[in-house]
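Memo to structure team: turn this sequence into structure tokens by end of day. - J.P.
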Amino acid sequence: MRLAALLGGLAVAVLVGGWLGWLGALPTALLLDRLLRRIEPPAVRRRRIQEVADLPLAADLLAAVLRAGAPVDRSVLAVADALGGPLGERLGRVGRTLLLGGEPDEAWAYLSPIPGAERLVAAAVRSSTSGAALTGAFTRLADDLRADRSVAVEASARRAGVLIVLPLGLCFLPAFILAGLVPVIVAVLGDVL
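Reply from structure team:
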């Protein structure tokens, strides 16, 4: 990535030329380096998307296993085995930490990097300190996560509709101006002059 940023800075220096090109090369290289580092690798993106997609199912499964009477640490391990994948790995760490006597804050923190999991973590930690039942909280959380996902999908579909029409508008607007307005303006100016 740094090589690409340096090559981008060098390209600015060569294309602009002179001392102004070299002056613009440094900020360009620094900006490119910063922007390239912010790009999420495809494997990390796939993992994040899979974790977010599995989170409502995990909350439902946790609620079901807890409702059956299993302790929290065993419930988390059972759900981790059933889910598999990246979320299953994280839940496995949570379950093993709880099983070995780790603090709930420390154990549930493994789920913190997942978008949307902060509510699950907060409910689990709150339950460990207050003794509140987790089954109802996890069931409501699963419903909320599904609702959030459907809202996000609907917003994405609306945004896609706008983005699809945008090139069409960009093509027709200049054509309308050239074919519709320019002849009228030329005719009016021809009569006036």
